[in-house]
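Supplementary Methods. Inverse-folding protocol.

Structures were first reduced to a discrete structure-token string of length 131. This string, shown here, constituted the complete conditioning input.
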């Protein structure tokens, strides 16, 4: 039964996104305000060009502590290769990704378009719902 449950069934949308030229302090504020651990970085055409996570943002705190540098742009701190998952992927496939990596959320794609995100908590909700 779990094989028939898809990412689409448990993903969340709308989605917080960042642009590469956004001020990183603004991005940190949005992460905190929306209680999320990361978000995709998209270019002007809507293509994913990276992913900014809480872990990436910790560099700002370290730079501020050592060099009194409190800023920067999202594009300077983001992880350039964003792992994504298709909306019709099995929830089990996503569970394996989360178990085998330190990733906490993934952008969800449908026909090369960003349509949402799926988190570890979403996967756990799916497992709880089908028991």
């Amino acid at each position: 039964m779990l094989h028939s449950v898809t990412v689409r069934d448990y993903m969340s949308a709308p989605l917080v996104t960042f642009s590469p030229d956004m001020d990183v302090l603004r991005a940190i504020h949005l992460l905190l305000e929306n209680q999320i651990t990361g978000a995709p970085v998209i270019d002007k055409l809507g293509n994913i060009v990276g992913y900014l996570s809480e872990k990436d943002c910790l560099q700002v705190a370290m730079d501020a502590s050592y060099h009194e540098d409190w800023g920067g742009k999202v594009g300077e701190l983001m992880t350039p290769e964003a792992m994504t998952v298709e909306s019709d992927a099995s929830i089990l496939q996503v569970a394996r990704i989360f178990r085998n990596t330190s990733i906490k959320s993934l952008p969800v794609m449908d026909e090369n378009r960003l349509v949402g995100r799926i988190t570890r908590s979403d996967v756990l909700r799916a497992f709880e719902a089908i028991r």
